[in-house]
């Protein structure tokens, strides 16, 4: 007969203690990394800014995953870039690396054998090479035109071998390069949206002109309400704009205005019913701002007026247009 011992289930406090240890170690490593940045980082930025072609980012294993993310961040912030897998590079993809490009290679050890061919290719054709590694005397850093050395910081796992702290530092260094390049190129939110039209980020950066309708319900000042009602119902916005003799937006007639003038409505003109000097918005305002204005004023539509301040109506935006686009 054998005896057995029952192990107590680990407590949630144990889970949290481990998680906090990991995050603390990685945060400490990032502080160290920040303090080590110097002339080599600035020279790396110079090379990247001077690139006539693309930035080719490469790495193997976990470094490869980080390299893919860095390439994606570069590409979406105004620095043309793509990831080349080092193993595929040895089987034909070296043709993707051309004179005029700059190559950024990541390897924690700096001795990853799969990187040999892409490193040799840059040396053979005089293609600038930036290396990121944690070993100062490694082959990658010795071969690089600019060597970015990751500081000596322990991995966050108990064994000290799982890539955790090292990959966090490499990712942060890539982000730092991308943001410096972005700011030097004066890359704007509008340009970012060109590369990122989908998802929540794209929606947040959408402009009023992207969502507005140019076919507006408009009537002239003095129009009998019978005509205004036809224009309102024909467009389906629940509102009609009223323009003065010069074509400028003088007021709007809304469902609320109709309810306030129900008695004898058809005997009135738009000038007697409309809300004067209504809320409007410019075409270059963010759609997110338009939603805020509508919510603040408890309205569902905004006329879009000429940005030069003439109050010439050039479009109309309904809150449903914003919601469909993901703007909330």
Strand content bin: 15-25%
Q: Output the structural class.
A: alpha/beta
Strand line-up in the sheet with most strands: 2-1-3-4-5
What number is the mean pLDDT?
A: 89
Order of helices and strands: HHEHEHEHEHEHHHHEHEEHHEEHEEH
According to DSSP, the number of beta strands is 12
Which bin fits the share of residues in helices? 40-55%
* Count of helix runs: 15
> What summary fits the major beta sheet?
5 strands, parallel
Say what oligomer this is: single chain
Shape: elongated
* Poorly predicted residue ranges: none
- Roughly how many Å apart are the termini? 67 Å
Radius of gyration: 30 Å
Q: How are the secondary structure elements laid out?
A:
Layout (H helix, E strand, L loop, with lengths): L11 H25 L2 H12 L4 E5 L2 H15 L4 E3 L2 H4 L12 E5 L9 H9 L4 E5 L5 H5 L2 E4 L15 H20 L4 H7 L3 H6 L3 H4 L6 E3 L4 H11 L3 E5 L5 E6 H6 L9 H4 L1 E2 L3 E2 L5 H11 L3 E5 L7 E6 H6 L4
Parallel strand pairs: 1-2, 1-3, 3-4, 4-5, 6-7, 10-11
Antiparallel strand pairs: 7-8, 8-9, 11-12
